[in-house]
Design goal:
The structure holds 3 protein chains of 3 kinds. By secondary structure, chain A is an alpha/beta fold. Chain A has helices at 15-28, 75-81, 114-121, 127-139, 144-154, 162-177; strands at 2-10, 32-37, 47-55, 69-72, 90-94, 108-112. Chain A has one domain: 3-Layer(aba) Sandwich (Pyruvate-ferredoxin Oxidoreductase, domain 3). Chain A is built from 6 helices and 6 strands; from the N terminus they run βαβββαββαααα. In chain A, helix 1 crosses helix 5 (144-154). Chain B is an alpha/beta fold. Chain B has helices at 9-19, 34-43, 57-69, 80-96, 122-126, 144-161, 171-175, 215-236, 255-270, 288-297, 311-319, 338-349; strands spanning 5-8, 24-27, 50-53, 74-78, 100-106, 137-139, 164-170, 177-180, 239-242, 249-252, 275-280, 282-284, 300-305, 325-329. In chain B, strand 6 (137-139), helix 6 and strand 7 form a beta-alpha-beta unit. The radius of gyration of chain B is 21 Å and the shape is globular. In chain C, helix 7 links the parallel strand 5 (171-178) and strand 6 (205-211). Classes of the chains: A alpha/beta, B alpha/beta, C alpha/beta. Chains in contact: A-B, B-C. The complex binds thiamine diphosphate (TPP), iron/sulfur cluster and magnesium ion (MG).
């Protein structure tokens, strides 16, 4: 099984971190993983995105042209990546910022009001973690436990952050699983 | 090997250099390799090393010349436009036979070009670049782990042959993250009795120099260099093959393109086409002798590279007319997808020429 | 001194700037464009812009421009001016570009008394490549290549370009300005205008250094950035006219 996931949003929405945590989690599960960011001028003011591959096979090209899942944190990202999604693919839409629905009927759409949930949790910064919870629940590419382990490793110097981020991930996952 | 960690390619090169015992780095910021200079700025002071941001790439490479001549394991890094500026210094380094490591995370060109990944500096890296009859050893890794392994190897080869070694990557390899493990260390640097360390009791002064004002002397020096290059060709040519034994079409690709080509090859195999992949690991010396025997067996070759056709010339030299050699490339910082390559493969396999 | 007009100068295309919020590059572009309009030289102006955040200035300036290699704009501009001596040629350079990689080019253009004008945007950092140390970065200032703060013991003190170039006979007009408030903007515009007039009267080389912000790489809001510039940059880089030819009124 090979998951090819594109995560996209405004710079500052934390899409790079989401991707890195998922990649890290995959590594902890001894899967083959790669993470590849967009970089350069397209990041200034525009959208930032990263490609995450998690696979049981060695990874060839780290570049994704037909994702199995897309996370759109803002409208330009949805417009840009929805058409590329594979048939039957997973589309996570940050419905706090995007009113538009999926245009395609051959994909699985999950609408996640991540900013609203994050502000309910008392910290807008964890909106990306809500979405991360949703994407791992929807794709099952890695387990929640591995993501939390990855988080603990990446933020070893800030253990205080763990609790709120875990809550955010759980909320995102619950949303998908309740569906 | 230690526990696996997740690291960006550019930073992995920096840590690998530290593992290899490099304690001197001189560089100038440029995208897409800035994470490397930034990593060195942070890391080298922690190991009592010297990090210096030079005022230009010209200055940086000349600082490398000085440090290498003084006996240090030293590195500089840049991307295409900056590497062009370094060419004069690299020629001097090759002439004076100084060991050093030069990293080029290639971007689209020519000119200021783009900052997206490219492989369009192949000619510059392998066929001279600067003036004079010289060669860099050119390593072309294709994963973050290989960036680590070949950075370390680069220092070892530089010292072994007193020759500049270029690590030729690209913007994509530098930016991507993959799990890696660092080996315990590199072979220790050999003694460098030729280095200008100050006499310190030595009787004969050491001189680091690329000037041989008498033509016969310079010719002798050149003959010596050529003999060294021959030894390097014989001992250090590296490559890898995948499923070439029964292949009717052999893809030839290095670096990031080899990753794309590998995916395309697997897809072609799944569709019943007998396709293999030949991957040079040293771009200089190019593995002509390893590739040549495949020419008798395979019906055709397809070079895949992010350029308008540079490495393909070496493929043609190796194949020497025995089979057709096609080329597929994207330009200017665009990356080709496995699907595009598969399209080319299919055309060739069906006898409808690649472009 | 004309009012700072808010209508778009003819010398600027009607396109939005790509600069980050609070960046001074946009203001400085506008001042240059206004000066060129007022001097009525748009049709014989050639701008030379090397690499830096302003590398896309050719999209904004509505006159001929050349994009130059990093640091080499004064040399490129020299070539342009020598081919078209009646043209008005200026370079628009960042601090990394002018004071680091292009230090030789600017010194020799000034020394030759090259009849060009240089607009030098000093934001104490490499903006475009993501916030590395510049030769103008202040002591203790943290950047991604001076993560422990700029240490003058190891990399020296920042270069004061105006003061340095003032020793060269060929440099006829040298001023340092800022655009942190309307009054200073007016002074900045006057200085830029003077620098163009010096070129047009054939006197020699002229340069205006503009202290500028980079909120993005300084990690500040636009307002914090202006306050930081006033508190830290202005004391080290005093504003003023360092050199002006006799007979040319201030
Ligand atoms: C030969 C070469 N080396 C490095 C670069 C990368 N580069 C582009 S702009 C820049 C520095 C920009 O800083 P500055 O001149 O201060 O302009 P700012 O972006 O701050 O306005 C660098 C290092 C390049 N384009 N060419
Ligand atoms: S990075 Fe800095 S200099 Fe560049 S546009 Fe943004 S604020 Fe201006
Ligand atoms: Mg600057």
């Amino acid at each position: 099984m090979t998951h090819e996931i594109v995560m996209a949003g405004f710079g500052g929405q934390g899409v790079m971190l989401m991707g890195q945590l998922m990649t890290y989690a995959g590594m902890l599960e001894n899967k083959q993983v790669s993470w590849m960011p967009s970089y350069g001028p397209e990041m200034r003011g525009g959208t930032a995105n990263c490609s995450v591959i998690i696979s049981d096979e060695p990874i060839g090209a780290p570049i994704i042209t037909e994702p199995t899942a897309v996370v759109a944190m803002n409208l330009p990202s949805l417009d840009k990546f929805e058409p590329a999604l594979r048939t039957g693919g997973i589309l996570i839409i940050n419905s706090s910022l995007i009113e538009q629905k999926a245009k395609r009927s051959d994909v699985k759409e999950y609408r996640v009001p991540s900013n609203d949930i994050a502000s309910e949790l008392g910290n807008l910064k964890v909106a990306n973690m809500v979405v991360l919870g949703a994407i791992i629940a929807a794709t099952k590419a890695v387990s929640q436990e591995s993501v939390m382990q990855a988080f603990a490793k990446m933020f070893a110097k800030k253990p205080g952050l763990l609790e709120i981020n875990e809550k955010a991930i759980k909320r995102g996952a619950a949303l998908v699983e309740g569906k | 090997m230690a526990e696996k960690i997740l690291m960006k390619g550019n930073e992995a090169i920096g840590e690998a250099a530290v593992v290899a015992g490099c304690r001197h780095y001189f560089g100038y910021p440029i995208t897409p390799q800035s994470e490397l200079i930034e990593y060195m700025a942070k890391r080298l002071p922690q190991v009592d090393g010297v990090f210096l941001q030079a005022e230009s790439e010209i200055a940086a490479i000349n600082m490398v010349y000085g440090a290498a001549g003084a006996g240090a394991r030293v590195m500089t890094s840049s991307s295409s436009p900056g590497i062009s500026l370094k060419q004069e210094g690299i020629s001097y380094i090759a002439g004076a036979e100084l060991p050093c490591v030069i990293v080029n995370m290639v971007r689209g060109g020519p000119g200021l070009g783009s900052i997206q990944p490219g492989q369009c500096d192949y000619f510059q890296a392998t066929k001279g670049g600067g003036h004079g009859d010289y060669h860099n050893i050119v390593l072309v890794p294709n994963s973050v782990q290989e960036l680590v392994d070949y950075t370390i190897l680069a220092f070892e080869l530089a010292d072994k042959y007193r020759n500049p070694v270029m690590l030729l990557g690209d913007g994509a390899l530098g930016q991507m993250m993959e799990p890696i493990a660092f080996p315990q260390g590199a072979a220790a640097a050999p003694a460098k009795p030729w280095a200008t360390t100050g006499l310190r009791g030595r009787k004969e002064p050491n001189v680091i120099n690329s000037l041989h004002i008498q033509a016969p002397d310079l010719e002798k020096h050149n003959i010596h260099l050529q003999a060294k290059y021959k030894t390097i060709r014989e001992n250090e040519t590296r490559w890898e093959t995948y499923k070439t034994d029964d292949a009717e079409l052999v893809l030839v690709a290095y670096g990031i393109s080899a990753r794309v080509a590998l995916s395309a090859m697997e897809q072609a195999r799944a569709a019943g086409m007998k396709v293999g992949l030949f991957r040079p690991i040293t771009a200089w010396p190019f593995p002509y002798e390893a590739l040549a025997p495949l020419a008798g067996k395979a019906k055709a070759f397809l070079a895949v590279e992010l350029s308008a056709g540079q490495m393909v010339e070496d493929v043609r030299l190796a194949v020497n007319g025995a089979s057709p050699v096609y080329h597929y490339g994207r330009l200017g910082g665009m990356i080709c997808s496995p699907k595009e390559v598969l399209g080319e493969v299919t055309k060739i396999m069906q006898g409808k020429e690649g472009k | 001194m004309a009012e700072i007009a808010f209508a778009r100068p003819e010398s600027l295309h009607d396109v939005p700037f790509h600069y980050c919020p609070g960046c001074h590059h946009g203001i400085i572009h506008r001042l240059v464009a206004e000066v060129i309009d007022e001097l009525k030289v748009r049709d014989r102006t050639i701008g030379v812009v090397p690499v830096g955040c302003s590398v896309l200035a050719y999209n904004y300036f509505n006159f001929d421009t050349q994009e130059a290699a990093h640091g080499r704009a004064p040399a490129t501009a020299t070539g342009v001016k020598r081919v078209h001596p009646d043209s008005v040629v200026f370079t628009y350079q960042g601090d990394g570009d002018l004071a680091s990689i292009g230090c030789a080019e600017i010194v020799h253009a000034a020394a030759r008394g090259e009849k060009i004008t240089t607009v030098f945007v000093n934001n104490a950092i490499y903006g475009m490549t993501g916030g590395q140390m510049a030769p103008t970065t202040l002591p203790e200032q943290v950047t991604v290549t001076s993560p422990y703060g700029r240490d003058p013991e190891k990399v020296g003190m920042p270069i004061r370009v105006c003061e340095m170039l003032a020793t060269l006979d060929g440099a006829k007009f040298i001023a340092r300005v800022a655009v942190n408030n309307p009054a200073n903007m007016a002074k900045a515009k006057a200085a830029i205008k003077k620098a163009f007039e010096i070129q047009m009267s054939g006197l020699g080389f002229a340069i205006v250094e503009v202290l500028s912000t980079c909120p993005t790489n300084w990690g500040m809001t636009p307002l914090e950035a202006v306050a930081w510039l006033e508190k830290n940059m202005m004391p080290y880089y005093p504003l003023g006219i360092f050199k002006t030819p006799e007979g040319v009124a201030k």
